[in-house]
Automatic annotation (TrEMBL):
This is DNA-directed RNA polymerase III subunit RPC6-like. It is found in: Nucleus. Keywords: DNA-directed RNA polymerase, Nucleus, Transcription. GO terms for biological process: transcription by RNA polymerase III. It holds the Pfam family RNA_pol_Rpc34. It comes from Trifolium medium. Its main location: nucleus.
Amino acid sequence: MVKEVPTIQNKGRKHFMATEFVPSEEITGGHFYSDGNLDKELIDALKKVCVKCISMQRVSTCDGCLEWCKKSGVFTTEVTEKQIKGILETLVLDNEIMQMTSTGYGDFASIPVGKTCYICKSKGVVKGGKKLVDSTSFPCFSCQRMSFCSPDGAVSPGTCVYFQKWLDF
């Protein structure tokens, strides 16, 4: 028994494979392709749900977004961790969200220290009549030492040269 397999590499050619085999992602295009075509609707829907999840929770992980997507009931197909990870990486590259490492303090209290998490880039969002500051412009959010920083530690806002330069600006 033989079956025809859609391929993204050579769309003009027909490819056949024994029915007992499953084609590899290199041939089919992976988890964002269906029948050899990029599923743009699925990608857009996943992006919207992930951004909503992160903005509602303030901080989320890949697992948190996956759970949110499964609970949302928006998707008729199974959403995988690999898909969510790809979407989150795309959103970081699109500059819609920021990838961070959890410090375990403040908004990160529910996420274990050192775990990769994501926050929304709020550009002066208005809440309750007050305009909030763009929190992503603070030097702390891009600092390599953020996971070691604490008010009374060796690395702290009081001793940070980057924070002081930012304040002087």
